[in-house]
Design a protein that fits this description.
single chain; nine-stranded antiparallel sheet; globular
């Protein structure tokens, strides 16, 4: 993932804050976080493997070194969250034609579409590998505050596209 690839469309997903009565406070894996229900993202099919969870919100991660990532947090289950990487629709990872086909399938106008990749980390010996799922990106409809994790019909995209590897700190 290049620096120009990771450009947040999160502004489109996060409307202006509303009154305090629309806030939900959750104890997440990143600590206590407050979310605005009026900025929630409805996922009709949930995420792959989590079809029963439909209401999510985006938040910044607390670590200032991770500003290129967002937290996609379930509003109904505090322990369920995903780190995602918002990226431009025109990027060097997924061909625009494949994204256009996915948007047509989901009835999302390209002008209303936003794209996020689900991030995974795994330890390999003393290293931590960071990858993104290119096969099933999350495609958002910013006009309707809805999103779907869509499996792309082009099978050339890996589920685990490595974007970085680092040393794990010895504890």
């Amino acid at each position: 993932m290049t620096a120009n690839t990771v450009v947040a469309h999160d502004a489109a997903f996060v409307p202006a804050p509303a009154a305090d009565d629309s806030k939900v406070v959750l104890e997440t894996r990143f600590g206590v976080m407050s979310f605005d229900r009026t900025a929630s993202i409805y996922m009709p099919r949930g995420l792959l493997g989590y079809a029963g969870f439909h209401d999510f919100a985006l938040a910044n991660l607390p670590d200032p070194k991770l500003t290129q990532f967002k937290l996609l947090q379930s509003l109904s289950e505090p322990t369920l969250s995903f780190v995602v990487a918002p990226i431009n629709l025109e990027n060097d990872l997924i061909e625009l034609a494949d994204l256009e086909a996915a948007c047509r399938t989901l009835s999302i106008a390209m002008t209303d579409a936003a794209l996020m990749l689900v991030v995974a980390t795994r330890r390999i010996g003393a290293a931590t590998q960071i990858s993104v799922n290119l096969r099933a990106p999350v495609i958002g409809d910013t006009r309707n505050q809805a999103a779907w994790q869509q499996i792309l019909s082009n099978h050339r995209y890996p589920v685990r596209h490595v974007v970085g590897t680092g040393s794990s700190a010895a504890g």
